[in-house]
Amino acid sequence: MQPLKLRISQSARNLGNGILSVSGFINHQVDPELMDLCGRELARRFSRAGATKVLTAETSGIAPALTTALHLRVPMVFARKTRPVTLPTPVFEMAAPSHTQQKTERLIVSAEYLCPDDRVLIVDDFLAFGHTILALSSLAHLSGAAVVGIGVLIEKSFEGGRSLCRGLGVPIEALAMVNGMPDGEILLE
Fold first, then answer.
1. Where does 5-phospho-alpha-D-ribose 1-diphosphate bind (predicted)?
2. Annotated binding residue 63
C-alpha cells in the first residue's frame, strides 16, 4: 500500500537489532488518516472472510485494528497485557515474547468478548517473528472461535514470522513488506 510505504521511507527509523521505529505515525503518535486508509484496505482485502470480530494486542495494534473493524462494521477486541479489576471472569490468557519490549508479555481477553461462534480477523501493527500473532490465535482457539485471517501493517519478512503463522491455514496480508534492515537502512519491497 503506497501511502504506508511512503510514510515508512520518510519517517521510520532503523534502530538496529531488527527494531523498526514507527513511533511517529503508528504506535506512539498515531496518524489517523493513514490508519483509516490502512483499515479500509485491510477491510477490503478481508471483506469475504466473514469476520465477526477483529482481535489485536494492546497497545500498538489498536489503531489499525479499530479502523479495520470500523470498515468491516464489526467489534474490535484487544488483548490486554494486565488484568484490571473491571475485567470479568473467566478470561483466556496466553504469553508471547516481545522483541521490542525484550520480555514475555501476557495477553488476556475476557470470555465475554470472544465466543465460540465468532469468526476472528487478527490485525496487528507488525508481523516479525510471529509470536504475538500465534498467541492471539491461541486466545481465539481457546474461546472456540475460528481465525479467518491475519492482517498486518508491516511485515519484516527477514524475521520468519510468516512461516510460523502459515501453519494456521488462513490468509495473511501485509500492507508493507520490509525485506531487510542492513547498516541503518530499511529495504522495502
1. 128-132
2. no
Closest listed residue to residue 35, CA positions, set 16, 73, 62, 6: 62
132 annotated as ligand-binding: yes
Domain limits at 35?
A: 2-188
Mean pLDDT of successive 10-residue segments in the chain (189 residues)?
97 95 96 98 98 95 98 97 77 82 84 96 97 96 97 97 96 98 94
Grid coordinates belonging to 128: 516479525
pLDDT at 86: 74
What is the structure's pLDDT at 101?
A: 63
> Residue 127, annotated ligand binder?
no
20 annotated among ligand-binding-site residues:
yes
| Whole-number Å distance between alpha carbons of 123 and 150 | 6
Q: In the 8-state DSSP scheme, what is residue 162?
A: H
Determine if residue 130 is labeled as part of a ligand binding site: yes
Cell 481457546 sits on residue: 142
Place of cell 462494521: 73
- Is pTM beyond 0.70? Reply is yes
Among candidate residues 124, 140, 121, 132, the one with its CA nearest the CA of residue 161 = 132
81: annotated binding-site residue?
no
**Structural domain tally of the chain?**
1
Q: How far, CA to CA in Å, does 182 sit from each of 12, 14, 15, 160, 163?
A: 14, 9, 11, 16, 21
CATH code (residue 113): 3.40.50.2020
